[in-house]
Design brief:
The structure holds three protein chains of three kinds. Chain A has helices at residues 2-17, 23-30, 32-43, 45-50, 74-97, 103-124, 128-147, 153-184, 189-194, 200-216, 225-228, 234-243, 247-256, 266-285, 291-310, 315-346, 357-360, 362-376, 382-393, 399-426, 442-460, 462-477, 493-510, 512-521, 528-550, 555-577, 592-608, 612-633, 636-657, 668-672, 674-696, 704-717, 722-730, 732-776; strands spanning 55-61, 66-71. Mean pLDDT of chain A is 84; it is low at 777-789. In chain A, 74% of the residues lie in helices and 2% in strands. Chain A is built from 34 helices and two strands. The mean pLDDT of chain B is 88. The termini of chain B are close together. Chain B has 20 helices and two strands. Helix content of chain B is 74%, strand content 2%. Chain B has one domain (2-506). Chain C is mainly α. Chain C has four helices and two strands; from the N terminus they run H-H-H-E-E-H. A two-stranded antiparallel ribbon of chain C has the order 1-2. In chain C, helix 2 (73-91) runs parallel beside helix 4. Classes of the chains: A mainly alpha, B mainly alpha, C mainly alpha. Chains A and B meet through strand 1, helix 7, helix 8, helix 25 and helix 26 of A and helix 1, helix 4, helix 5, helix 6 and helix 8 of B. Chain A: One of its GO terms (cellular component) is plasma membrane.
């Protein structure tokens, strides 16, 4: 199974590298892997229905719990029929839709094929993390497919919106998966389904996972990315946003229903969100003039319906879901492809401009009518069969009846916008000029015709559909039921509901214009698109605000913050919990007092100095004072080195000061922050002093290491000067390291000081080289990635 | 056998001297640099194998046993990070050589670049391999001194000024580091890391905690932890692309490594460290928000770097084996990905002539190769499966969920949010620079410095080097299984610390 | 030939030029010779000339005595460096080859190489990196002499420090002066 998935991706890669000359053949070639997948799935259909699904496992990283686990069970079979079947048809359709060969066509082919492969992997996944991997890959493919080459602003915005909304859901879902996996100890779905976990962690995980499902399947309030994504070419919309990708959320809920069976609120939440989405989608669809947008909102509405069914958890509900999945895939794909034909042949998708197409394109119209019948739930299509099952599921009282009422009302809206679609697209309108249309190539009509026929066939041959759906429903709901999908169950409530729905929907459609007039007078409620834009806008403002405030660009501020961090974090710990120091001596040697005084006075003087040379000399005094402290403290080597280094530093300073102005230049704002700077530095110095006191008094015994140095110096290193022994023997490596630091620093200083002159030389050298090489080399060739698109 | 531990440190130093002597011969310098780095890659691989199979390999320098002398220790963590770092250094060197040949011709060479680069390599290796706190300071000094030179050489006055911010902040943090070492020695009487762990046990708790926090601050400055990160976005973007790539990939990670090594080896703690988790959350958010506010491509990448340091701090804050496994995996992933992104950014600036995203457009048409070279590491950084970023992020998320405390759960949510923001930032770059109308490249505004823009010229060396790194990121994902196992063993070693201490203090001169 | 100002045609930049045979080989010791037209302090120059060799010898003493009394490679190198600083302060720019025979980067490189080699030498002999050994041998007049291998590390340190100080003088000293001269001269 992994091989089949990977073959999709490999062929996609090869296709993207193939040259332009063969671009006509690209789409049929691209249709090969999904065909293979479809055939393979059908070949295994028997074992799947019998209850022994084929399984593949491959380890990726056992430590992290990552493995590729695939399992072809009934739900996967149903989805494969949709994904691979419609995939083949869409790819063949694309050959005629993308007329002239172009980079767009090539890219779309490989991306569509890659998407088909990734979606195929998603439906087969038997491991939560495998599922997530393919989930995110579909998001990326969708991003690239919607954006195309990103030339228009709308396509860029739409693809970004889709990316962000679905990734937000995806990441939250990942968190849910991890919570679920960690608390139950396994990530494998089949194992989880066999032994459903329960507990608070599972409840939390369910909520998180539902967020993911809702974003992907465009439930309210995440639904706006779907209509926005209609900027993509129609075949892409047909495939991604009608037949496969958006179903992923519903599929996920269906897949995890057995796993999450202990979570009681799952059906409630899915029902609520699903119904709201169903209403909102249908309501918006009645207002749209663009056929694609109409269908998009229709898809949103249908997804809501599917979500209600997916979360139901009952046998009949799951039966209805399987039927509805097949039905929706079939009729939605047909309608999108038909609209693509209309758009391609007439140049417009606006129902206000279209008229008389029914007479000009009779075959197209009949295909569309067949699909529309399925969408509206007219017998004998599969749409009718599935809807009957759905109505049957929610027969009852109380909350269940409310849901029933909801789906009936939603179906009314569905019929209404279906009628609006049909009439708006194909009817001859009074007083309108018939639209011009180019003749339709047969190959372009074939794919939608196949799917439309499927709508009919699946309904008429309902025993077949029933067997497929029943096997799935049994496993999903955990129990069997008596209901069977069929065309005639007798005069019962579902039949009445269907009839009522048809009648009410047609009436609504007839009065739609008046309704729209009323609507335009009403105030506009919350708009999800505006909400999304507002959120993104405030995110940008927040980012700029925070960064502008925080990233000040002032070096003293940065240093001050570092010092403050040192003061606050370790300093507070020291202050709060330290014990008083015993045996505190004020000095060891009286001479330390005047030396300390000199150092302190010099330090204060540095702060107050106005001339640079004064400050430098005072720093030198501090250095010499410290050297004096070393002498008094009994470290002649240290004192010697200190005096020498201090002298050298002073000389270096003085040499550089020749180039600087004599006085410090201080802006008035800098003068204002002088006091805080002094205070912070003072606090820092005091902290270090105190810390030194506290830490030195923390131990009573002298250092063991020092004792060993003194002991081993004579015989181990033949030295009587321990300091030197440490530098060149015990810790010689430090010396070698510091030598390299000195070497590097000297080189760096040289490079800095001497660089301004060489900069000019370099500029001329480079322009000479460019002229030389430009005449010598061809302009394309090894450097030419340009122009090879 | 234990001499192999000294090779990554001493060989580049010697080669730097030679390279300086042969400063007039460009080809000699180039081949010497590549050869030395190649040898070190092999050596690091051998060290990793040995450390994984037999335990830490210790070299007592000068023949003096620790804690009297300095010990170089190659355990799993050090060897793994060393291997990845040197591979990246090799690729970046290839890129620099390619860039130099494109801009100035094959004959000329800069006398100082190659020796300084080799010294930088030596410093990085020493930082990973040393087992002594003062030696760690020396290693940082070697690394930082080379970086000061690399960031300020051959550029204009404005860029030197930006480099000065970096230099002065680093010097200040080095002063703090030295102060901290002095305080540590005053309190414990030793600077050997293994020995420190033992000595710390004998001190009262308040000074121990203060020392731990001081170490967090010092290494936090080096690794650009919020609120000590300000120097990074102000200084990194102004250097040439390969220099920024090396800095971003290595210097901050050495800071993180030092933080991990000192905190875990020396101090005792329970899982879920609230202070570190808070700092990690702040770093992630501030970095991500900063990246979203930028129009300059390099500055945006610098802010993303800061943000992802937060991920590693998160793993450290979780403070158990799973968390540390995640950190190690994340460091390995991030070193390769961040270096690649900066190299690709260099390629992008050469094609478009600008670093401002608002002035770029249509690059995917001009150069599909650069588009792919950008897309792979960018998706990996954003944590999209099946790339390395996803694998590492998964490890971190599992650790965060697994440890179970409230702080950890909040921080895990922040990790998820930051991932989303990173994806948004990266998608924005794609949308602005690679999609859209094709724009004419702008000319080079300042031909006198080493940053060449707008020419569209790239040599095979540059593209191949970037390609090698992109392949490495893919390899990290493919080899996630073995890598995760090694990381977990390294993490276990770290937490228990017994093997390390026994090898350094107990066994004498090791392997 | 001596005089208050240079003869006609005397170039302002440093290069080898003619002088009479009784003039000293060290050009900077020439009284009256002034490369830049600036003030000269006779006292400073005299003391510098007298003290320079002594300071160098003292630095060598510090180098060799470091292992047993105060001193060592760092102190020795710094003292030698100070001698050159004194000469620079007295005599002006030092970047022509007659005054300093070795370029500072070469000195630096040599010092570093000696240090690294001293560390690596014990390895072929079966020792550890940077291991030290002491050799005692008898010399007829002076008696027993003991040399420790870490002395060579000190020598490397010594050379490197001298190189660093000379480089400092070359860049911060002469380099900055050249910049100033260019600015004032208006030459580009």
């Amino acid at each position: 199974m992994l091989a089949l998935v990977v073959s999709h991706l490999l062929v996609a890669l090869v296709l993207s590298l193939v040259s332009m000359r063969h671009s006509r053949a690209i789409y049929p070639v691209a249709a090969l892997p999904p065909t293979a997948a479809l055939c393979w799935a059908l070949a295994h259909a028997d074992s799947v229905l019998a209850g022994s699904p084929p399984v593949t496992r491959m380890n990726w990283s056992a430590t992290l719990g990552l493995e590729f686990a695939f399992r072809l069970d009934t739900l996967a079979l149903v989805m494969t029929l949709l994904v691979s079947g419609i995939g083949v048809l869409v790819l063949l359709y694309c050959r005629w839709y993308f007329g002239t060969p172009s980079g767009d066509a090539k890219r779309s082919a490989s991306l569509l094929l890659a998407f088909a492969g990734v979606m195929f992997g998603l439906v087969l996944a038997d491991d939560l993390l495998t599922l997530y991997v393919f989930w995110e890959l579909t998001t990326i493919c969708s991003f690239l497919l919607v954006g195309q080459s990103g030339v228009s602003r709308e396509s860029r915005r739409a693809s970004l919106q889709a990316l962000l909304v679905t990734t937000l859901g995806g990441l939250v879902m990942l968190l849910g998966f991890i919570v679920l996996g960690e608390s139950s100890g396994t990530y494998r779905i089949s194992e989880l389904a066999a032994d459903p976990p329960d507990g608070a962690a599972v409840a939390v995980a369910t909520g998180l996972i539902l967020v993911g499902a809702f974003t992907k399947s465009a439930q309210v309030p995440f639904h706006n990315w779907l209509p926005a994504a209609m900027v993509a070419p129609t075949p892409i919309s047909a495939y991604l946003h009608a037949a496969s990708m958006v179903k992923a959320g519903v599929f996920l809920v269906a897949r995890l229903t057995p796993v999450l069976s202990e979570v009681s609120y799952l059906p409630v939440v899915t029902a609520v969100f699903g119904l709201v989405t169903m209403f909102l989608g249908g309501w918006r669809a009645l207002r749209e003039h663009d056929l694609k947008l109409l269908l998009a909102y229709g898809t949103v509405s249908q997804l809501g319906f599917l979500m209600v069914l997916a979360g139901s958890g009952s046998y009949t509900g799951e039966l209805a879901l399987a039927g509805m999945l097949l039905a929706h895939g079939a009729f939605k794909a047909t309608l999108f492809l038909v609209i693509g034909i209309v758009d391609h042949q007439t140049g417009t998708r606006d129902i206000r401009e279209l008229s008389g197409l029914g007479r000009r394109m009779p075959w197209v119209t009949s295909v569309a009518v067949l699909a529309a019948m399925s969408m509206a739930g007219v017998p004998p299509t599969i749409g009718f069969v599935a809807k009957e099952a759905a109505f049957e599921t929610y027969l009852g009282t109380g909350a269940v009846a409310a849901v029933e009422a909801g789906i009936v009302a939603g179906s009314v809206l569905t019929v209404a916008y279906t009628a609006r679609l049909l009439f708006g697209c194909f009817a001859s309108k009074r007083g309108a000029v018939p639209t011009e249309a180019h003749p339709v190539p047969a190959g372009m009509l074939l794919p939608p015709a196949v799917t439309a026929l499927a709508c009919l066939v699946l309904g008429v041959a309902y025993p077949l559909t029933d067997e497929l759906a029943a096997t799935y429903a049994e496993r999903a709901a955990g129990s069997s039921g008596e209901y069977h999908l069929g065309l005639w169950h007798g005069f019962n409530q579902p039949l009445v509901f269907s009839a009522v729905t048809l009648f009410a929907g047609l009436t609504l459609a007839a009065h739609n214009a008046r309704l729209n007039l009323l609507r335009s007078r009403l105030p506009r409620p919350l708009d999800a698109q505006r909400g999304y834009e507002r959120i993104m806008g405030s995110l940008e403002r927040l980012a700029v605000g925070v960064t502008g405030r925080v990233q000040v660009g002032s070096l003293p501020t940065y240093l001050g913050i570092i010092l403050l961090a040192v003061l606050v974090v370790p300093g507070s710990v020291l202050l709060m919990r330290v014990t008083p120091i015993e045996q505190l001596r004020w000095w060891d040697n009286v001479l330390q007092l005047p030396l300390a005084l000199v150092i302190l006075v010099a330090a204060a003087g540095v702060v107050r100095a106005t001339r640079r040379i004064t400050a430098v000399l005072l720093v030198g005094v501090i250095g010499y004072g410290i050297g004096g402290m070393f002498i008094v403290g009994g470290g002649p080597d240290l004192a010697l080195t200190q005096f020498l280094v201090e002298t050298l530093t002073l000389i270096a300073f003085v040499l550089v000061l020749r180039r600087l102005p004599a006085r410090f230049t201080e802006t008035p704002s800098a003068r204002r922050v002088r006091l805080p700077k002094v205070l912070v530095s003072l606090a820092g110095g005091v902290f270090v002093g105190f810390a030194a006191l506290i830490f030195s008094s923390a131990r009573d015994t002298p250092s063991r290491v020092s004792a060993e140095y003194l002991e081993h110096a004579e015989e181990g290193t033949s030295a009587t000067n321990v300091v030197n022994a440490i530098i060149v023997d015990f810790r010689a490596f430090d010396t070698v390291g510091e030598l390299s630091v000195l070497a590097v620093t000297a080189t760096g200083v040289a490079s800095l000081v001497l660089s301004s002159r060489s900069a000019r030389r370099r500029k001329h050298a480079r322009s000479d080289w460019r002229q030389l090489s430009a005449t010598a080399r061809p302009t394309a060739g090894e450097h030419g990635e340009r122009g090879s698109a | 056998m234990s001499e192999l531990v000294a090779v990554p440190v001493l060989l580049p130093l010697g080669a730097a001297g030679l390279s300086m002597a042969f400063g007039r011969f460009a080809d000699v310098q180039r081949w010497l640099g590549l050869l030395v780095l190649g040898v070190i890659v092999v050596d690091a691989a051998v060290l990793l194998y040995f450390a994984d199979v037999h335990g830490p390999l210790v070299l007592h320098l000068g023949g003096w046993a620790a804690p009297v002398g300095i010990a170089l220790v190659a355990d799993r963590l050090a060897a793994l990070l060393l291997l990845i770092s040197v591979i990246v250094m090799f690729a970046v060197l290839l890129y620099s050589i390619g860039q130099r040949i494109t801009d100035y011709g094959r004959g000329t060479a800069s006398t100082t670049f190659h020796p300084i680069y080799l010294v930088l390599c030596s410093g990085v290796s020493l930082a990973y391999l040393t087992g002594d706190l003062f030696n760690l300071f020396v290693a940082f000094e070697i690394m930082l001194a080379s970086s000061y030179v690399l960031i300020t050489r051959r550029t204009t006055a404005n860029r030197v000024r930006a480099g000065m911010t970096y230099t002065i902040v680093s010097l200040s943090s080095s002063v703090l580091f030295l102060t901290m070492i002095g305080l540590v020695y005053a309190a414990t009487g030793t600077v050997n890391l293994a020995d420190l762990a033992l000595e710390m046990g004998e001190l009262p708790p308040a000074p121990v905690r203060a020392l731990a926090l001081l170490m967090v601050i010092v290494f936090g400055v080096k690794s650009a932890m919020v609120p000590l990160h300000f120097w990074l976005p102000d200084s990194y973007p102004n250097a040439p692309a390969p220099i920024t790539a090396i800095f971003a990939a290595l210097l901050t990670k050495v800071g993180i490594y030092a933080m991990i090594r000192t905190q875990i080896l020396v101090f005792e703690r329970e899982p879920s460290w609230p202070l570190m988790l808070t700092l990690a959350m702040a770093t992630m958010i501030v970095g991500a928000l900063g990246a979203l506010a930028q129009n300059d491509l390099n500055r945006m990448l610098s802010f993303l770097l800061v943000s992802h340091i937060g991920f590693m701090l998160f793993g450290l804050g979780v403070y158990d084996i799973a968390g540390l496994t995640g950190v190690i995996l994340y460091i390995v992933h991030h070193i390769t990905v961040q270096a690649t992104l900066f190299l690709v950014s260099g390629l992008i600036t050469r094609y478009t002539g600008t670093v401002a995203l608002s002035r770029m457009g249509g690059l995917a048409k001009i150069s599909p190769l650069v588009a792919v070279l950008f897309a792979v590491p960018a998706l990996s950084l954003a944590g999209v499966p099946p790339f390395s970023g996803f694998v590492a992020k998964l490890a971190l998320l599992r650790a965060g969920v697994g440890v179970g405390t409230v702080w950890a759960q909040v921080a895990t949510a922040v990790v998820v949010l930051t991932s989303l923001l990173t994806l948004y930032a990266v998608a924005r770059v794609w949308s602005r620079a690679f999609w859209g109308q094709v724009r004419e490249p702008e000319g080079d505004p300042d031909p006198s410095d080493e940053l060449v823009v707008g020419t569209g010229d790239t040599s095979r060396g540059m593209v191949h080097a970037t390609g090698v790194l992109v392949l490495s990121t893919v390899l990290v994902a493919v080899l996630a299984g073995p890598l995760a196992e090694v990381s977990q063993r390294a993490a276990t070693d770290l937490i228990t610390g017994e093997a390390y201490r026994a090898a350094v203090l107990g066994g004498g001169s090791g392997g | 030939m001596t005089g208050a100002e240079p003869p006609e045609g005397w170039p302002n930049t440093g290069e080898r030029t003619w002088f009479r045979s009784d003039a000293p080989a060290e050009r900077w010791l020439l009284s009256g010779y002034s490369r830049d037209s600036r003030e000269r302090t006779i006292l400073l120059e005299l003391i510098a000339r007298v003290v320079f060799p002594t300071v160098l010898v003292f630095s060598l003493y510090l180098l060799f005595a470091g292992h047993y009394r105060s001193g060592g490679g760092f102190s020795g190198g710094l003292v030698a460096g100070q001698a050159f600083v004194l000469r620079y302060l007295a005599g002006g720019r030092l970047d022509d080859s007659s005054t300093v025979s070795m370029r500072p980067p070469v000195l630096i490189g040599t010092g570093l190489t000696i240090a690294v080699i001293t560390g690596l030498v014990p390895v072929p002999f079966g020792g550890v990196v940077l291991e030290s050994a002491s050799f005692t041998f008898a010399v007829p007049v002076l008696g027993e002499i003991k040399i420790v291998s870490s002395l060579f590390l000190d020598v490397g340190v010594y050379l490197l420090i001298i190189g660093v100080v000379l480089d400092l003088l070359r860049t911060l000293g002469s380099g900055i002066e050249a910049d100033i001269a260019e600015r004032e001269g208006g030459r580009r």
